[in-house]
Amino acid sequence: MTGSAGQGRLRLGVNIDHVATVRNARGTDYPDPVRAARLAEEAGADGITAHLREDRRHISDSDIERLMDSLTLPLNFEMAATAEMQAIALRHRPHAVCIVPERREERTTEGGLEVAREENRLAHFIAPLAEAGCRVSIFIAADPAQIEAAARIGAAVVELHTGAYCDYHLEGRLAERDAELARLRDMSAFAHALGLEVHAGHGLTYDTVAPVAALPEVMELNIGHFLVGEAIFRGLGPAIGEMRRIMDEARVA
Ligand code: PXP
After folding, report:
1. Which domains does the chain have, with CATH numbers?
2. Cα(62)–Cα(84) distance, rounded to whole angstroms?
3. What is the value of pTM for the model shown?
4. Rg of the chain (C-alpha set)
């Protein structure tokens, strides 16, 4: 999944973590995130994203195994930069590995990775993953120092964290939202100019996705929590179809 700015269709990676959250609330084997992945594929997703957290609060090791066995779409495996996760990724060799920060007590992935502070360690950490054929992506805030560091360590992709932009929108802090969107716009152009492929995600909804989808350097959006929630009301396929429609319209405009 590669490309240059403005070329081809904006890709949608559907994050299925929260199908597993609902399953795990009861300790049953349903609803099954792998079934959700198959439905997402039929509904026009270009990839499936799953985050195997250290505490296994949603996706499990066996979910990753089953996704690798049965998916025809590329899997974007989100993980913290730990030895345990590196070994799992090297065993499965998913299409993409997205390195995210992880804190046990957080509700979700709250900020981007501090690449600049850990440059040396991360460069050594991602090298074997890239050698194994995984496209390595680094989840970071829209910040020039982090983008430059991601380029220096040899990442192929940066995923820009859209959480702050979405939070400002929800809180009605529109000037701050627009400033954050301007940062995302400038930083996606900056990352692209450094040769990085640009993705974006976190917290996106029907109300917030269009301006991000319109950024020409952004090649892929990863969206999960909102889609799984919306699926309760309209079904997963139609929920994804509507997101696709809004993304495609924003891209053309
Ligand atoms: N991208 C990354 C790197 C993430 O960690 C997450 C959340 O797991 C997402 C995208 C999707 O965020 P959301 O579930 O809020 O749409």
Report:
1. 11-252 (3.20.20.70)
2. 15
3. 0.95
4. 17
Ligand 1 mean position, distance from CA 19 (Å): 13
C-beta of residue 20 within 8 angstroms of C-beta of residue 33: yes
What is the phi/psi pair of residue 196, to 5°? -90, 140
Give 207's DSSP letter: T
16: tokens are 């299925």
The distance from CA 184 to its chain's CA centroid, rounded to whole angstroms, is 15
Specify whether 65 is catalytic.
Answer: no
- On the CB side of 3, how many CA atoms lie within 13 Å of its CA? 15
Name the residue among 168, 52, 167 with its Cα closest to residue 100: 52
Active site residue 78: yes
pLDDT in tens, 60-76: 999 999 999 999 999 99
- Any ligand 1 atom below 6 A from CB of 208: no
E-strand stretches of 162-228: 197-201, 218-223
Please list the residues that pair with 201 across neighbouring strands.
Answer: 161, 222
Evaluate the CA torsion angle 189, 194, 197, 202 in order and state its sign: negative
